[in-house]
Amino acid sequence: MTDDYAPHRSDELPPDSVGIVEPRTQHFSDSLTLACGRSLDEYDIVYETYGELNAAKSNAILICHALSGHHHAAGYHSADDKKPGWWEVCIGPGKPIDTNHFFVLSINNLGGCHGSTGPASINPATGKPWGPDFPALRCRDWVASQRRMMALFGIEQWAAVIGGSLGGMQAMRWALEHPDEVRHCIVIASAMRLTAQNIAFNEIARQAITSDPEFHGGRYLEHETIPKSGLALARMVGHVTYLSEDGMGEKFGREIKSGNFQIGQDDKVEFQVESYLRYQGDVFSRSFDANTYLLMTKALDYFDLAREYNDDPVEAFQHAKCGFLVMSFTSDWRFAPSRSREIVDALVAARKPVCYAEIEANFGHDAFLLPIERYLKTFSAYMLRVKEEVNRAL
Amino acid sequence: MTDDYAPHRSDELPPDSVGIVEPRTQHFSDSLTLACGRSLDEYDIVYETYGELNAAKSNAILICHALSGHHHAAGYHSADDKKPGWWEVCIGPGKPIDTNHFFVLSINNLGGCHGSTGPASINPATGKPWGPDFPALRCRDWVASQRRMMALFGIEQWAAVIGGSLGGMQAMRWALEHPDEVRHCIVIASAMRLTAQNIAFNEIARQAITSDPEFHGGRYLEHETIPKSGLALARMVGHVTYLSEDGMGEKFGREIKSGNFQIGQDDKVEFQVESYLRYQGDVFSRSFDANTYLLMTKALDYFDLAREYNDDPVEAFQHAKCGFLVMSFTSDWRFAPSRSREIVDALVAARKPVCYAEIEANFGHDAFLLPIERYLKTFSAYMLRVKEEVNRAL
User: Fold this and answer.
1) Which of A320, A364, B175, B393 is the most exposed place for a label (fewest CB within 10 A)?
2) Which pLDDT tens digit goes with each residue over B97-151?
3) Residue B229: closest CA among chain A residues belongs to which residue?
4) A366 belongs to an annotated ligand binding site
5) Higher pLDDT, A246 or A3
6) DSSP state of B216
7) Where is this site: Important for acyl-CoA specificity (chains A, B) (predicted)?
């Protein structure tokens, strides 16, 4: 996830922002049975909402976040907050997910590390952090916990469930498992399942974390430490692979940060890209929980949309009743356009309504977080249709 | 570098192999001044030769190895040896580099860890391993030390200097710095300089090594340990990025090594690609020196063919007097065909004779080590021309 969104001037918030937002925490004391067979007796979900829920409760949008995402998708937490939520380009008044018309719910997924119950939370059975004992989670578990939030607001059907990357997997799972509760499913830079290469990169990230001596078998919090360098490495792998070669070339080229190429110099030259990566890794390692990273990458690896539908994506999508918008980005090589076209092909074969846009963009997988004109236009046009449907039904 | 070359039957060596070969060590006691300004007072070079040097000494080929390569490029070290040298597909009787006609010299580069003097060798000044005190090396230093080997054999001109990847960088450096001593330069899956993405992957590998607590600032041998998990991680990054997505997909798909996807299982499923990567990382970490890996990746990052020629590759190549064969592989994304085309474009603009072949192949950067039909045919055809030139001059 990029950190490059331009900070606003601290004396005023941008007019197309949802403005100051406040996260809230919802406690659930009904046990939730998980795909792994275990259950959580109680848990918290932290969430934010933007816009107003209409009286018919028909204008609700669910945002599903990706690997390193969280509930804070739009707006600012204070007037001094330097950075807005991670999807500020897409959520706000007049933006694709237009908060003048929609009510947006954005939650931190169960197992996360930004306020919802996860491996860094206290296990009530032991009084210690869950750590590696936190149950394995699947996309369907997130769908189940999101559905409880839905009930809380009295929403019977989402106007749209929207997600990029791992978030797109959750959106598709929603469409298959609760077809009557989803009007539109928007799947951005995602896939029906990971490739071997993608699993391999996730495994490298996990190995980096678990082979850090500070990992302590996942019980690092009990040892009052964190596997900082392992997590930083994991992030660096993610960062390089979520960007495109051209995007990195444009951003860094072979620019030198320090040193020079004079003969007589030992290895003193440092390229910009090296210090940038180390900085990104360092920042991430101090703000993200290592066990959450392991849990999220496993959920990614295990996701296989059609597994329970005879490995047939057409059979799988036959269960859906919603409209689909699928978008991909030309330079995204971890969730390549060919993966999105597989989704579209299966939807077409299942005779489902689908719009597909393959967006020319230079920034790899991270493109879904960036203000790319055709992306935002296409997204807005589709959402306008969703809004008109909502209005017609009123 | 792939480890998949089929082992021979132990009761006989393949007839198209150079057979049993023996590495030799050459000691140099004349000081070698390096690009970094420091010098090595004395050093060893381990090497192998295949085929016979003719009386005119005009049939000599120099092989330059890549990041994790070494002198053992062809043949077997004993009748029981399970695996041949790393370029067995290209070197041998009747193969592209035909040992019935050519004399082949293959050395382990200075700074290596397979017998030539490197960071794991004893520093005569301290009686301890060089470790991080070993001087930084550049491609030109390897060229200089290879040139001393050349003199030893009384060779005045190479019939060809040949290398893949980092080896191709050395071959190009030879062509520019010693134009009268190279008749042909064969550059395979290489580049005039690395992209930011490539530098980033190397930096991740280095961070994995140096952040391993067993690294001890590079003095791990003095601590009687090695940064095993860091080196394994570095290798895993290399392995994934040197393969193509399709190649990995073909080889592993989402095949499961253990566990199953039944509901009620925690994270027990292990994909084939995960255990394969861990195995490869483990093997490598026990056979390669971490400081050598750092040194070699730095030489890769710093290489910039045209830096001293006003950053103009055309001006650079104007110094060359040899013929060029450039080859690339369609699925190689770390040394992509576009990088090879840059070399070819510069050569054409410099009015140098160049043949270029872009080989359709599925195995990423590793393709240059594999028996791909069009690759071997093109390579053989060019080498036939080199042989005919040698014969005509006799």
Assistant:
1) B393
2) 999 999 999 999 999 999 999 999 999 999 999 999 999 999 999 999 999 999 9
3) A211
4) yes
5) A246
6) G
7) 334
Q: What is the pLDDT of residue B7?
A: 45
Instruction: Give the CATH architecture of domain A24-195+304-393.
Output: 3-Layer(aba) Sandwich (3.40)
- Token readout for B187 is 């550059």
Contact A295, A166 (CB under 8 A): no
In angstroms, rounded to a whole number, what is the distance separating the alpha carbons of residues A224 and A347?
A: 49
**B196/A211 Cβ within 8 A:** no
Looking at the partner chain, which of B264, B271, B301 has a beta carbon nearest the beta carbon of A301? B271
Q: Which of B272, B290, B165 is nearest to B233 (CA)?
A: B290
pLDDT for B8 equals 44
pLDDT (mean) for B148-162: 98
Q: Is the pLDDT of residue B158 over 60?
A: yes
- The answer to whether the CB atoms of B195 and A333 lie below 8 A apart is no
ipTM (interface predicted TM): 0.90
Neighbours of B385 (CB within 10 A): 13
Residue of A141, A193, A203, A333 for testing the chain B interface, max B β-carbons within 10 Å: A203
Determine the residue type at A137.
Answer: L
pLDDT at B82 over 50: yes
Q: Is A365 known to be catalytic?
A: yes
Region B163-184: mean pLDDT is: 98
Give kind and range of the element (H or E) at residue A98: strand A97-98
Contact B358, B158 (CB under 8 A): no
Query: At the topology level of CATH, where does B24-194+304-393 sit?
Result: Rossmann fold (3.40.50)
Of all residues in chain A, the percent with pLDDT exceeding 70 is 95
Strands A270-271, A160-164: pairing is unpaired
Q: State how far residue A77 is from chain B, nearest Cα, in angstroms.
A: 33
CA distance A229 to A225: 11
Average pLDDT of the segment spanning B300-313: 96
Q: Which of B394, B393, B330 is nearest to B367 (CA)?
A: B330
Q: Most A CBs within 10 Å: which of B226, B252, B267, as the mutation test of the A interface?
A: B267
**Which residue bears the tokens 């993966």?**
A339
Residue with tokens 């009557």: A180
Decide if pLDDT at A103 tops 70. Answer: yes
Per-residue burial over A163-181, b = 16 or more CB atoms within 10 Å of its CB, e = otherwise: bbbbbbbbbbbbbbbbeeb
Q: Which residue of B has its CA nearest to A208?
A: B233
Supply the Cα-derived Rg of chain B in whole angstroms.
Answer: 21
Residue ranges at the known binding site of B for substrate: 235, 366
Q: Is A235 annotated as a binding residue?
A: yes
Asked if A252 lies within 8 A of B204 by C-beta distance, the reply is: no
pLDDT single digits (tens) A120-147: 999 999 999 999 999 999 999 999 999 9
What are B338-370's pLDDT values in tens digits?
Answer: 999 999 999 999 999 999 999 999 999 999 999
State yes or no: pLDDT of A164 exceeds 50.
yes
- How do the domains of chain A map onto residue ranges? 24-195+304-393
- φ/ψ of A70, rounded to 5, equals -165, -170
**Gap between the Cα atoms of B145 and B89, Å rounded:** 26
DSSP B7: P
Q: pLDDT per residue over B219-240, tens digit each? A: 999 999 999 999 999 999 999 9
A265–B204 CB contact, under 8 Å: no
- b/e string for A123-161 if b means 16 or more Cβ within 10 A? eeeeeebbbbebbbbbbbbbbbbbbebbeeeebeebbbb
